[in-house]
Amino acid sequence: MPPLSVRSLISRSRIPSLAVLAGLMVTLLAVLLIALIRILTNLAFFGVVSTAESRPDFTHWGAAGILVPVAGGLLIGIMARYGSPAIRGHGIPEAMQAINTADSRIPARVALLKPVSAAVSIGTGGPFGAEGPIIATGGAVGSLIGQWLPSSPVERKILLASGAAAGMTAIFGTPLAAVLLAVELLLFEFRGRSFLPVALAAGTAMALRSCFHEPLPMFPLVLTVAPGPAVSIASFLTGAVCGLLAVGVTRAVYGLEDAFEKLPVHWMWWPAIGGVAVGVIGWIDPRTLGVGYDNLRQLLDGNLPLGALATLALWKFLSWWIALGSGTSGGTLAPLMTVGGAVGALLTHALHPVPGFADFPTGLAVLIGMAATFAGASRAFLASVAFAFEATHAVTAFGPLLLGCGAAVLVSRVLMRETIMTEKLARRAVRIPSEYEPDTLHGLVVREVMEPVELTVPPDETVASLGGRMGTPGSPWHDVRLVPVVDGGRLVAVISRADVFAAMESAPASTVLEAGVRHPVTAEAGENLANAIDRMILHGIGRLPVTDASGFGKLTGLLTRRAVLDARQRRHRSAVR
Question: What are the φ/ψ torsions at residue 260 (nearest 5 degrees)?
Answer without folding.
Answer: -65, -35
